[in-house]
């Protein structure tokens, strides 16, 4: 599977899209480059929520590996998002090109760093990594696959996944989430939320017995993506996803002008709920320069 990212991550193809090497190579040749910003944290969250789920081709019994390729320093918190993946047993390899921040690569990557962090001066030099990286990846998969997997369920389904996410009590700065727990209670829940237009992902971890949460300190008039994942001892169940927008801040209303003199006017208005101060700007017509 492959995703590109800038401000907004974009899935190019899922894990289940192709079944042969030639098909994958052809897809790479047809790939359109996506320029822009470097929101690596948002991209890692996208991979977890969109690319590593069952209906995108991720198999519960298969080892999960993410290879991050970046040519710049992240503009959001990549470390928090990476730690979330690593806590779920997903191994991250970080490859930097040109202006990548090596300290950040080492924070994002899984241990041991001598096998998971690579850095080259330019894109053509990536070919020099292929042999070693292939060998390391295959070895890591074999090592992890040799661990006992007999207790893992064949699939998740309703027994292991929550249902019926409801978002209510939405204000300009908060919202309330509730969901129906799965038949088998999880060890804990991970709730991940972030602005849909790009921004740092935040997460809250809850005990598995809790099935509601109030998100606060949100930005007003902003669309948020929300995901709820059940976490078990050996795996993560399918997540619930929702989207909603916080309300705009209330505005003052009914502006009135009175008591005009040669050098003053009086303004009055109906108060805006929750406002602690007002900023009043006036300008002289017709140029509109602020005085």
UniProtKB/TrEMBL annotation:
PROSITE patterns assigned to the protein according to its UniProt record, in alphabetical order: FN3 (PS50853), VWFA (PS50234)
Q: Where are the transmembrane segments?
A: none
Gene3D superfamilies, alphabetically?
Immunoglobulins, von Willebrand factor, type A domain
What are the VWFA domain coordinates in residue numbering? 1-133
Q: Which residues form the signal peptide?
A: none
Domain (Fibronectin type-III) ranges = 161-250
Localization (cell): Secreted, Extracellular space, Extracellular matrix
Q: Which UniProt keywords apply?
A: Extracellular matrix, Secreted
InterPro entries the record matches: ECM_Assembly_Org, FN3_dom, FN3_sf, Ig-like_fold, VWF_A, vWFA_dom_sf
> What is the official name of this protein in its record?
COKA1 protein
Q: Which organism is it from?
A: Ardeotis kori
């Amino acid at each position: 599977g492959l995703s590109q990212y800038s401000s907004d991550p974009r899935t190019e193809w899922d894990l289940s899209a192709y079944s042969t090497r030639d098909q994958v190579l052809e897809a790479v040749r047809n790939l359109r480059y996506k320029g822009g910003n470097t929101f690596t944290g948002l991209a890692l969250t996208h991979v977890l929520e969109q690319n590593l789920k069952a209906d995108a081709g991720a198999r519960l019994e298969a080892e999960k590996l993410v290879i991050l390729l970046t040519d710049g320093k992240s503009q959001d918190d990549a470390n928090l998002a990476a730690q979330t993946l690593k806590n779920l047993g997903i191994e991250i390899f970080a490859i930097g090109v040109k202006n990548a921040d090596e300290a950040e690569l080492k924070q994002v990557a899984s241990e041991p760093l001598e096998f998971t962090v690579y850095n080259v001066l330019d894109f053509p030099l990536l070919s020099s990594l292929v042999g070693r990286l292939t060998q390391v990846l295959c070895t890591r998969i074999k090592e992890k696959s040799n661990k006992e997997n007999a207790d893992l369920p064949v699939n998740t389904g309703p027994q292991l996944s929550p249902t019926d996410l409801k978002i209510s009590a939405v204000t300009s700065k908060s919202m309330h989430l509730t969901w129906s727990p799965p038949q088998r209670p999880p060890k804990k829940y991970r709730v991940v939320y972030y602005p849909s237009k790009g921004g740092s992902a935040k997460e809250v971890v809850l005990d598995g017995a809790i099935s509601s949460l109030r998100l606060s300190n949100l930005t007003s008039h902003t669309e948020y993506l929300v995901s709820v994942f059940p976490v078990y001892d050996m795996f993560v169940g399918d997540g619930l996803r929702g989207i909603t927008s916080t309300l705009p801040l209330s505005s003052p209303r009914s502006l009135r002008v009175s008591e005009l003199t040669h050098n003053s006017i009086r303004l009055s208005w109906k108060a805006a709920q929750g406002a602690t101060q007002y900023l009043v700007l006036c300008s002289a017509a017709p140029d509109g320069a602020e005085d």
